[in-house]
Amino acid sequence: MRENLTDLSKHIKLKRKQNKLTQPELALKAGVGLRFVRDLEQGKSTLRMDKVNDVLRLFGETLGPVPMDRDKLITDE
């Protein structure tokens, strides 16, 4: 799961830089706090999905289910 958070963090940072936005500018445009943007880009594991979507919406994107390799899941069996 941590891998997906890292991917999201890298994706947001890349999109921000491609759009020539600073973290404060992104926070302002998305209507979220600067601390949230920093936490998002650092891969914090507990983030509100609605706020993540507020940021992604600026880039024409949204969160959604992603298929994963079931063999990589950890089970108690």
UniProtKB/TrEMBL annotation:
* GO molecular-function terms, A-Z: DNA binding
**SUPFAM superfamilies membership:** lambda repressor-like DNA-binding domains
User: Record's superkingdom?
Assistant: Bacteria
Looking up PROSITE patterns in the UniProt record yields: HTH_CROC1
Which intervals hold domain HTH cro/C1-type? 12-66
Listed InterPro entries: Cro/C1-type_HTH, Lambda_DNA-bd_dom_sf, Tscrpt_reg_HipB-like
The protein's matches in Pfam families, at most eight in alphabetical order, are given as: HTH_3
**NCBIfam families per the record?**
couple_hipB
The identity of this protein, by name, is: Y4mF family transcriptional regulator
Lineage in the entry?
Bacteria, Pseudomonadati, Bacteroidota, Flavobacteriia, Flavobacteriales
